[in-house]
Amino acid sequence: MNTRRNMLAGIGGAAALLAGWTAMRGSAGLAEAPSAQGTGAIPFPNVTLYTHEGRKVRFYDDLIRGKVVTFNMMYTQCEGKCPTMTANLRQLQALLGDRVGRSVFMHSITLQPLLDTPDVLKAYVEEHHIGPGWAFLTGAPEDIDAIRFSLGFYDVDPEVDRNLASHTGLVRMGNDSYQRWTMAPALTGTQHILATLNHVDREWDAVS
């Protein structure tokens, strides 16, 4: 029930963000909006993050702009859904083959940024045999929250939202160039996640 409720909350949150963005686009103050204003329909905060390799990146400019991307939330000490999510996404990475890191870029963002330093995330990547093209990211707690809300990874109930054990088990997928964004449960079958991702990848649609 938590997964279904959180999925609906996240999708509802994304819809609210989209409505807000539409309103912003019609306002005179568009240029003053603090988030990155790319080609996508939803504004994303262009905050600084750090990869598991210690590389400094900007959330919108470096990770999203002009790319086909996937995002999920996790933390290394999670003993609930995170290990299964990671295993499912590892299978997705295998199915994507050389598309990962070339035309599709995978990202996992920690919900415990003060504990999950780049070194801790690097150890997690090595433990789970994560290949190239999939970055694990950390940053300032307030920046992680801004990203989480922009992606629709939150619960409308503040108490539930603060409980890491009930965090949403979704994968956010998008194509910034064509303003296509969608979600899929990370705990579902890998083929379903792949099919959902292919719907936003026009390059793949053209050759499939």
What do you see in this structure?
The protein has eight helices and seven strands; from the N terminus they run αββαβαβαβααββαα. The protein has helices at residues 2-25, 59-64, 82-96, 118-127, 141-151, 158-162, 190-200, 202-207; strands at residues 48-51, 56-58, 68-74, 104-110, 134-138, 170-175, 180-185. Strands 2-1-5-4-3-6-7 form a seven-stranded mixed beta sheet, sandwiched between helices. The radius of gyration is 16 Å and the shape is globular.
Give a topology summary:
Blueprint: H1 2-25, E1 48-51, E2 56-58, H2 59-64, E3 68-74, H3 82-96, E4 104-110, H4 118-127, E5 134-138, H5 141-151, H6 158-162, E6 170-175, E7 180-185, H7 190-200, H8 202-207
Parallel strand pairs: 3-4, 4-5
Antiparallel strand pairs: 1-2, 1-5, 3-6, 6-7
Short précis:
The chain is α/β, with parallel strands linked by helices and 208 residues long.
Shape: globular
Structural class: alpha/beta
Order of helices and strands: HEEHEHEHEHHEEHH
Overall mean confidence score, pLDDT: 81
The number of strands is: 7
Q: What's the main sheet like?
A: 7 strands, mixed
Query: How large, in whole angstroms, is the Cα Rg?
Result: 16 Å
Family: Belongs to the SCO1/2 family.
Organism: Metapseudomonas resinovorans (Pseudomonas resinovorans)
Pfam family, one: SCO1-SenC
Protein name: SCO family protein
Q: What labels would you give this structure?
A:
208 residues; alpha/beta; 7-stranded mixed sheet; 8 helices; 7 strands; 42% helix; disordered N terminus; SCO1/SenC; Thioredoxin-like_sf
